[in-house]
Amino acid sequence: MSDEQPADSLSRRRFFGGAGSVAVAGAGGLIAGTGGAAVVGGALADEQATDPATDVERLQATSATLSYPYYGAHQSGIDTPPQDHLVFTAFDLSATTATELQLVLAKWSAAMAQMTAGRPVGKVEPTREHGIPVDTGEAFDMGTQGLTLTLGYGPSLFDDRFGLAKFKPKDFADLPAMAGEALDPAYTGGDLCIQACANDPQVAYHAVRNLARMARTSVKTRWTVLGFGRASAGPHQKTPRNLMGFKDGTRNVSGEADFAEHVWAGDEAQQPWMNGGSYLVARKIHMLIETWDEDPIGDQQSIFGRTKQEGAPLSGQSEHDVPDFHAAVAGKPAIAPDSHIALVAHENNAGTKILRRGYNFTDGLDSVGRLDAGLMFISFQKNPEQFVSLQRKLGSSDRLNEYIRHVGSGVFAVPGGLPESGSYYGKEFFA
Ligand code: HEM
């Protein structure tokens, strides 16, 4: 925007209008990104801002019109550059018939298309005075905010309740019990899950709330985690920090070849509906933050194998230096073999990689006044075994275990994307 133009020329109408507006090319750090991400509408990337107030408006407007495709080979919310906020909810079905389940999935598919396009799921203001609003309204006028909604099916969906056993992906089962976990059934499992990510928390919350509400006679929410301060980064994003103060997401799956090799499911699932899908692993990991905060910096760095401020591997200088697990300092490994990164790096795990797409969370204080906070770890992989093999190593050897507890867990088969308008998730189950 030029200096002469008043800030209010960034009118709501202009940003919500969509057609004829300019594509975002990195304005204010919001990048259209990888994986087929598209910006519909957009902000004034080719104009210069000088006034900080204008910058704020520009950012807000950019996010309001940022949207990712709902139809395509893959669901959005996997290779989408991580948005700032998460609402993750696992649901149990109270439905008793396949037809009821079919209705839930069909309604959700249509509602997800609406909401990811920034539209309400129905009337916010019914015309009749006694009409009940269909959409609850709290995201009305807020735009898309980069909202993505990613649906997954838990292993329990394929038990004998709905006759879906023959559609179960090969070897799909609950995660095995692993060392170092203290899982709470209140944060574990679920027949279905929705991962809602958006740059505004209210937009993500509204989406899950309305999905739950429209299916309330057929599904019950089982557990929810509200995440903030994404703890992972896409290719053009600055690496954020987890609540232990370390950069998280420096080395992650990136680029189409890596996604094809490590993330997108294919024929091995032996279910055509999983082509282009993935498996989502969710772990609610509580951090013992008070204890961590008293740990000396040398120990903190040696636990992760990286420096705190820069995020450099202890064998290098800069964040993106490739860790050298053979480097030695004074006859000792620069990166301790039992450090977090040494245990899980692909170089030390026969090439195994997972896409980490986690968020920080806090539930306030616990009953004795300690911080109730941690990492909502979410990873996507072609096969849940990738996560299991890494977590088995971490669970038995990671020095980080002294400071964390895995309290929640779920594994979900995420179907491939919907091909076109009118299609719905699960259609093939009910043919
Ligand atoms: C609260 C728990 C955890 C914390 C605080 C944490 C933190 C970190 C940090 C700071 C890094 C280094 C920066 C980076 O490359 O992103 C990292 C890397 C990594 N973490 Fe974790 N992590 C946690 C749990 C897990 C779990 C449960 C897994 C998988 C089972 C995992 C897998 C990885 C992988 C694969 C890397 C990349 C290693 C590399 O290639 O160098 N992390 N994590």
Present as ligands are: protoporphyrin IX containing FE
**Quantity of strands, as a count:** 11
Unreliable spans: 1-49
Mean pLDDT: 88
Structural class: alpha+beta
Distance between the termini: 54 Å
Radius of gyration: 22 Å
Measured by DSSP, the beta-strand proportion falls in 15-25%
Q: Count up the helices.
A: 9
Helix-strand sequence: HHEHEEHEHEHHEEHEEEHE
Shape: globular
**Major sheet:** 9 strands, antiparallel
Name the helicity range. 10-25%
Write the layout of secondary structure elements.
Layout: H1 12-17, H2 52-65, E1 85-93, H3 98-116, E2 148-153, E3 192-198, H4 201-214, E4 219-230, H5 256-262, E5 278-287, H6 289-293, H7 297-304, E6 328-329, E7 332-333, H8 340-344, E8 355-356, E9 359-365, E10 371-381, H9 384-397, E11 404-414
Antiparallel strand pairs: 1-3, 1-4, 2-3, 4-9, 5-10, 5-11, 6-7, 8-10, 9-10
Domain Dyp-type peroxidase N-terminal: 75-228
InterPro entries: Dimeric_a/b-barrel, Dyp_perox_C, Dyp_perox_N, Dyp_peroxidase, EfeB/EfeN, TAT_signal
Family: Belongs to the DyP-type peroxidase family.
Search tags:
431 residues; alpha+beta; 9 helices; 18% strand; binds protoporphyrin IX containing FE; Dyp_perox_N; metal ion binding
Give structural notes.
The protein is α+β, with helices and mostly antiparallel strands. The chain has a domain at about 5-65. The chain has nine helices and eleven strands. The chain has helices spanning about 10-15, 50-65, 100-115, 200-215, 255-260, 290-295, 295-305, 340-345, 385-395; strands spanning about 85-95, 150-155, 190-200, 220-230, 280-285, 330, 330-335, 355, 360-365, 370-380, 405-415. The strands form two sheets. Strands 1, 2, 3, 4, 5, 8, 9, 10 and 11 form a nine-stranded antiparallel beta sheet that branches. A two-stranded antiparallel ribbon has the order 6-7. Strand 6 and strand 7 (about 330-335) form a beta hairpin. The model is unreliable at about 1-50 (pLDDT under 50).
